[in-house]
Specification:
Strand order of the largest sheet: 1-22-19-24-17-14-13
Number of domains: 1
CATH architecture: Sandwich
CATH superfamily: Jelly Rolls
CATH topology: Jelly Rolls
Structural class: mainly beta
Distance between the termini: 15 Å
Largest sheet: 7 strands, antiparallel
Radius of gyration: 18 Å
Bound molecules: manganese (II) ion
Number of strands: 27
Number of helices: 1
Strand content: over 45%
């Protein structure tokens, strides 16, 4: 049965925060429609030094923010201002264009840990109206010693309210101690696991953080076990099946779409304005490093 251990790469966001980027990976661009996975923190910061990402645009994707520790304020060009707390999801659908900013509380020290994922929109939805949804509660299943939160799709009969556009699933599994479970999988889905904390065993292999453990498709179960406190994400979906481009904050099908979106952002068109953000809007980098992502196996 296929499995590949792919190393996440480290990057810096918002000037100071080191993140582990599991997707896209040189050897694996997408897992289902999931096309980006950053694990940020856990990190403690002094007052005034939290996350502070100025307004920036998105097209062709959904941003899926899963708060693990701390809180962050989302502001967007549709006028939404929404704090996100642990156990909650902010889901922003960019469609043909939206902009947003993300900020820690301004004047207090804090700690944060966040998983931010992007979901590629299928071609038929890629130019949809932009939207924002906050999900304060998600279905939770207690089984085998794990607390399983259904982030997206349906798992063990529980359906996440998050509005997604492809057959896909995402779950968070957490345990404070010893736990063991045989997870039911969808054989038509491909899956990958990423450890957030501890060193759980996934499919019989110990999985430390900083690895995208790609599990392929054709499985109907997956054993996950732990002897100590641990936490991991399992993502999956029908292989995306469309070739997409991912560049800066955009998902598109052609370089022309990327160039137009970049020009529109520079000219202050299409993406609206984010009111009240503490930082200046981000400047688009030079469009030169376009990377082809393929959803094909
Ligand atoms: Mn963003």
């Amino acid at each position: 049965m296929t499995s590949e251990r792919l190393t996440s790469h480290r990057a810096i966001v918002g000037d100071t925060f080191e993140i582990r980027r599991a997707l896209p990976n040189r050897h694996r661009r997408t897992v289902g429609a999931w096309c980006f996975l950053d694990h940020a923190g856990p990190a403690d910061y002094p007052a005034g030094q939290g996350l502070n990402i100025g307004p920036h645009p998105h097209i062709g994707l959904q941003t899926f923010s899963w708060m693990i520790e701390g809180k962050i304020l989302h502001r967007d060009s549709l006028g939404y201002e929404q704090w996100i707390h642990p156990g909650q999801v902010n889901l922003m659908t960019a469609g043909r264009g939206i902009s947003h900013a993300e900020e820690s509380p301004a004047d207090e020290p804090g700690r944060f840990q966040l998983a931010q994922l992007w979901i590629a929109l299928p071609r038929t939805e890629s130019e949809c109206d932009p939207a924002f949804e906050h999900y304060p509660e998600l279905p939770i299943i207690e089984r085998g010693g794990f607390r399983i939160t259904v982030l997206a799709g349906t798992f063990c009969g529980e359906r996440s309210p998050a509005r997604v556009y492809s057959p896909m699933v995402g779950v968070d599994l957490a345990t404070p101690g010893s736990a063991r479970i045989e997870l039911p999988l969808e054989p038509g889905f491909e899956y990958a696991a990423v450890t957030l904390e501890g060193r759980p065993e996934v499919g019989g292999a110990a999985l430390e953080s900083g690895i995208l453990f790609y599990l392929g498709k054709g499985r109907d179960t997956l054993a996950v076990a732990s002897d100590e406190s641990s936490r991991l994400l399992l993502i999956g979906g029908e292989p995306f099946g469309e070739d997409i481009l991912l560049w800066w904050n955009f998902v598109a099908r052609t370089t022309a779409e990327m160039e137009t979106a970049t020009r529109d952002w520079k000219a202050g068109r299409r993406f609206g304005a984010v009111r009240g953000a503490r930082s200046a809007p981000l400047v688009a980098p030079d469009i030169g490093g376009l990377r082809l992502l393929t959803g094909r196996p």
